[in-house]
Input
Amino acid sequence: MQRVCFLLKVRPERLAEYRARHGEVWPEMREALARTGWHNYSLFLRDDGLLVGYLETEDFEAAKKAMAETEVNARWQAEMAPFFESLDGRPDEGMHPLDEVFHLD
Output
């Protein structure tokens, strides 16, 4: 299983709304993520807007591609894009994995 961690930056003035939206992720979005190989997926948000994402998957590129082909993802990404700073495109296109330098089971 591949472990993936990425960083994004949420606009400080949108933090409360971002948190609220993720408290109510659409059931069809949750189902699509699970179906396309996103497992143990978590988002962590710092008060200055730093967002840390973590997931486990067999193949991150394949999981991203499969999600990108779903209609629900297109709707979700369109709604989430205004929450982020410094993006050239959709939020899911800005997920660049960090290099894992240590892991302890």
Observations:
- Strands lie at 2-9, 39-45, 50-57.
- The two ends are 13 Å apart (CA to CA).
- The chain has one domain: 2-98.
